[in-house]
Design goal:
The complex is a heterodimer of chains A (about 280) and B (about 150). Chain A is an alpha+beta fold and about 280 residues long. In chain A, the strands form two sheets. Chain A has a five-stranded mixed sheet with strand order 2-1-3-8-9. In chain A, strands 4-7-5-6 form a four-stranded mixed sheet. In chain A, helix 2 packs antiparallel against helix 3 and helix 6 runs parallel beside helix 8. The longest helix of chain A is centred in the N-terminal third of the chain and has 20 residues. Chain A is globular and about 45 Å long. Chain B has a single domain, classed as Fe-S hydro-lyase, tartrate dehydratase beta-type, catalytic domain (fumarase, Alpha-Beta Barrel). Chain B is about 25% helix and about 25% strand. Chain B has five helices and eight strands. In chain B, the strands form three sheets. Chain B has a four-stranded mixed sheet, covered by helices on one side. Chain B has a two-stranded antiparallel ribbon with strand order 2-3. The interface between A and B is large, with 50 and 42 residues.
Chain lengths: ~280, ~150
Amino acid sequence: MYNLLRLANTKLPEDIGWAMEAASGWEQNQIAYTQLGAIMDNVKKAEHIGSPMCQDTGIPVFYVRGRFDSSIGKDIAKAVERATKDIPLRPNTVDPITRENCGLNLGPGMPIIHYIPTDDDFTQITVLPKGAGSENMTRLAMLNPADGIEGIKRFVIDSVLDAGGRPCPPTVVGVGIGGTSDVCVSMAKEALLVPLDEDNPDKDLSKLEEEIFVALNGSGLGPMGLGGSTTCLGVRIKKCACHTASLPVAVNIGCWATRRASAKITANGVEYSQGVKF
Amino acid sequence: MHIRALEYVKEGKEVPSDIEGSVLFHCGPIMVQRDNGKWSVVAAGPTTSARMNKLEPEFIRRFHVRAIIGKGGMSKETAEAMKECGCVYLAATGGAAISLAEGLCRCTGQEWLDLGMAEAMWRFDAEKFGPLIVAIDSNGNSLYEKVSANLVRP
């Protein structure tokens, strides 16, 4: 699990790197081009020296899937503590009222772990280190079902454009549609785990992803909000059923450094991946 | 450190004199303390400057900050204080923490570590630090405002 945290923090997932390289190929704005160049240069250096690519190593959000026993939470906490000291990660967690920092990225409710028990014969542990710049731009709207697909599109585009340069564009835009308010926000974050080079099997959602992607990159916001045609690297949407009187929509933005890694533990050993199959 | 510095001024306590006329970098770095007790920087990209909007106008006027390095831009009130004091806002590339750390060649001290690594005040000598873009100039012209005014919303 320590290795998982190291991998996630020091190496950008390939699909995101490819999207960035493709973007810098068509970017015409000089300032934007400089920003993309600085980002790619930084990514290479971080991987080479094995240091975190961004100083905001975030709050590590874990997803544990498959077969596991209840002690896994303690093991994850130990790994977070070790990673904080040894990689090192920045100690980010504080008491929300006193703002006291324990220095270990732990504390009540930490680390955040989502458990998904299945009948599979493996355990898959996925980590998504989530920095505050992008997380602070999270939005939830309980839309009127009559607002429909246009309402969803409007809300997602406005959320990203209103965030401006704060979530470190070019961003990955995670969207949740449906569920209850809490599930909707969770889905928006989980959507960031879906690789950018994987087609959305739902044709309607795939079309919506494409339309939002085109609109955002035509907006002129650009990298870091300094102008240009690279505002977004990809849009990922997840949906689930909801109440007939509701249309919840949530947006969870991933900065350009949308970091993710997963470890699949089987009887034969551990297999690491950053193109998470979730 | 913004809150602490301004509180100290109000309470008449001594504030580190080198804040006066300094270049302020909005950054919560990852630092490590070496065996000899000295600190060195691991990663240091800019943090979201808007978080400091509430305190920055007073901070700029009180300490005559020469330049602010950050990301995402700042409020009209902050730009107004910058204009009064001849201060500029320089945009660094968010997340480019390793490249920017290379430009911070020496950590020359720190204050208020009790605030935590990210919120403490760190002193650095910088060389070949960047790239930096003048995003708000000393006349209050803001690139962010220009981009935002021209945004295309379908």
